[in-house]
Design goal:
The structure holds three protein chains of three kinds. In chain A, 68% of the residues lie in helices and 0% in strands. Chain A is built from 14 helices and no strands. Chain A starts with a helix and ends in a 16-residue tail after the last helix. Chain B has ten helices and twelve strands. In chain B, the strands form two sheets. Chain B has an eight-stranded mixed sheet. A four-stranded antiparallel sheet of chain B has the order 2-1-4-5. In chain B, a hairpin with a 2-residue loop joins strand 9 and strand 10. Chain B is of the alpha/beta class. Chain B has a domain of 114 residues. The radius of gyration of chain C is 24 Å and the shape is globular. In chain C, 38% of the residues are buried. Classes of the chains: A mainly alpha, B alpha/beta, C mainly alpha. At the A-B interface, helix 1, helix 11 and helix 12 of A face helix 2, strand 6, helix 3 and helix 6 of B.
Amino acid sequence: MSVTDLAAEPMPAGLEPESIEGRSPWRLAWSRLVRDRVAIASLIVILLMVAAALAAPLFAALTGHSPTDQYRETGLTDQGIPVGPGAEFWLGTDSLGRDLFVRTVYGARISLLVGVVATLLATFAGVVIGLVAGYFGGIVDTILARAIDVVLSFPYLIFAMALVSVIGPSLVMTTLVIAFFSWASIARIVRGQTLAIKEKEYIEAARSLGASPMRIMFVDVLPNLVAPVIVLATLLVPTAIVFEATLSWLGLGVDVRIPSWGAMLAESQSFFRVAWWYLIFPAGALLLTTLAFNLLGDGVRDALDPRSERLFATRRKGKP
Amino acid sequence: MSTDGDVLVRVEGVEKHFPVKKGVFFQHEVGRVRAVDGVDLEIRQGETLGIVGESGCGKSTLARCIAGLLPVTAGQVSFEDEPISGLSRSGMRPFRRQIQMIFQDPYGSLNPRRRVGSIIGDPFDIHRLAAGAERKRRVQELMELVGLRPEHYNRFPSEFSGGQRQRIGIARALALRPKLVVCDEPVSALDVSIQAQIVNLLADLQAELGITYVFIAHDLSVVRHVSTRVGVMYLGKIVEMAEGERLYTRPQHPYSAALLSAGSVADPDEAARRERIILTGDVPSPIAPPPACRFHPRCPKAQHICTTTEPPLEVKPGEPADHVTACHFPVRPGERLGQTGLGAEPPPPSTGEPTAESGGEGGTA
Amino acid sequence: MIRFLIRRVVFGVFVLWLVSLGTFLLFFVVPGDPARSIAGRQATPETIALIRERLGLDEPLAVQYWTFLKNLFRGDLGYSYYNNQPVTALIAERIGPTASLVIGGALLWLVIGVGVGILSATHARSLLDRVTAGFVVAGISMPTFVVGLMLLFVFNYLLSTVLGITFFPGGQYTPLEEDPADWLRHMILPWITLCTVQAAIYTRLTRGSLLEVLGEDYIRTARAKGDGNRRVVVVHGLRAALTPVVTQLGVDVGYMLGGVVVTESVFGLGGVGQAALQAIVNLDRPVVMGVVLLAAFFVVLASIVVDIAYSFLDPRVRLS
């Protein structure tokens, strides 16, 4: 058999070359995701939330209420109690007579901004640290793995509170603190995956070609980590949002003058017996956002790894 | 063992030990796996050197030492008379273009997340030899060379069969036009029907491009057709090395003879004639190999001297200069090796079977 | 085993030392002068200097830290900057509600999480499983303080104010020894608050881990031998399946301390968590250090206990 004969070797039966040309794993995952109704619904909720956050000034103009102005004449009753939902104030007012709807929409900006930015920072740090620890091993790994353990098992809320309280609350500070306490979970998984991938023959193949450690980490290892990292990052966003809301609720989050859901809920605590909307709308917005991100994260995981257990089994298959 | 032919690679006293460590915080060495324990050999320009042995005998480790993928514990590997052991990554870089490797597992050796074009084109990127359209053209040339359809450039490894994947691995290894290709069991993971195709492809490429191969296998029958010379490895050492056909027909080391008898044989006549030598016991642990001749606990011919004195790898009387054996009691042609061991009954006298060359008749065994 | 314990204890002490150093330094690298804030706005520089001297703040950092360590070994955590109360006494005084909350909440989340997880795994893909999955995502998405607020809203407003029934009063802690029934009534809502998120996580973890174990060969072998289904699950599966649950428990002790701060603040239980929050806001360093060290002590202790529990649960693990 000569080389030219071999060139004519037929494709294995059943594989029609044209029909499968270029179907990348990503395209397959996407087509699976699109079929997942819960995930798509969550995605739509998130997109609407993002749109509302971006359009917050528009809503302010539409209602004629700024998020910070106090409408003591129209926004409070004679006894100084917040006004309920109605034509003037769509979702009612808060204890200072501010428009709850406009404030809730502005609050989405903070939650999403902090949630996404902190997640991006934490993901970047987690991936780099996990990759370096897993790929280089040895003493570097020992130290980094210990650091991961320590951060993971730490009473981080208390530490975050201390940090924020000492340094002073601000948007940047809150974001950095959340990122600082969030990278470890990603680093742990990236490290584990890297350790497994490092033993694969294709890594040895890359080394035999003379590839540098940098190139191997980013060209050969990283693409195999993208799927788990996307899932982890999607699930980290709601965690970061909860983190931010909790700090703000404790009065240690973003600047109190900026409307944020956590701070609104803190203010509502002494008023919800007379103004249920004060508690329910910010809490609802917060829950809807975190729920949507968690459901989307589950959907993305199922789409990227069809073997993993589906959280929402759409069809009942017999008991195992 | 200096003979004719240009020597491409010289392996001198190479040892590779892996430490066995214990402890969580403060690791300490509790033992060493002597994967390769003193190997000398030469690889000649244009030949195919087969290395065979059971799994765990250190042949893959030796392959990686030759390919410069593992630092050696002791000894030296020289490529074209330049020592390459102990070179830094950058020092090794020029040699990476000359020495390439083909791996055993066609599934594990290709990154599942990268397209075939980018896998085969990797060498051009790493050595900055070609980019863009030029790189694509050269990758497609390579694909054609190894019998793949160039239009499958953008596919993922998962869309190919095992044999096709191995062709991708071969294309990647050939991209830099290396002088030496180390094939680490390149066909043992493939179906038997595919094995011949890949072996033939490798042979054709050698004829076309003048590559030198080191061909690792655990199955003697695979190396038989392609190897110029064959070395047999046992527990980290070469126990016998000879010109290919000679090793098959007149093995001198009892271990070689046993391996030969265990291998699958394509020729039914030969299969019938062949007596099966069954080795007793397991391969001893390479952490604590047996003293002196490492094969003695399993050897049907072992005598007391085998447990005290290590036999040197040398040319036995009456044998050609490139047939070396490390054995005190080399197998004579036609000798039968029973299932005996040290101190057991002497084997029954030979039934006078002719040497293998004469070809035999005989019924089914 | 003994060597293992010694090594773990040494490492634990090392971690505690790092924590003490970290917390100590945190209060000095940042702006904010406790003496100034104690003295109040109108204080003269002389008063501030006096306070500083009395608190030992005028000494070099290393000397201050050394004094702190020396006192620590005598069981003296120092005195609160604010009311001069010994920190140990302050913690002892407030440990009651915190201990009630932590022990009850942890028991509740373990019972619910592991129990529902087992049910869900043994009835995989049933209606029960799917409903559970829904609750799990909802639970994971809920910030602890929102759970508390919602519980207060429902039980303290909707049911008591609107319907006139008071099941569980909010606020105020009644010590167990004074009135067990009242203690229970006051603790139920805080327990649910503390355990909701964790129970959801543990349900998911137990279910996933048990399903994985049930798929393994030795379980199938046990089934093939004719063991009844229930016995198979309990005897063979659970032991192995609980290993990751125990690991998580070790990690979560740290988490719980954050949850304690939040839960105590929602219900005003007046425990150590609330004291810590106040101390953090007031830059009351001795109290913060005391609470953080106490917390870190329990984290370290938990991780050692978890490692020992490991070897009982998983016969493959040998402590050495």
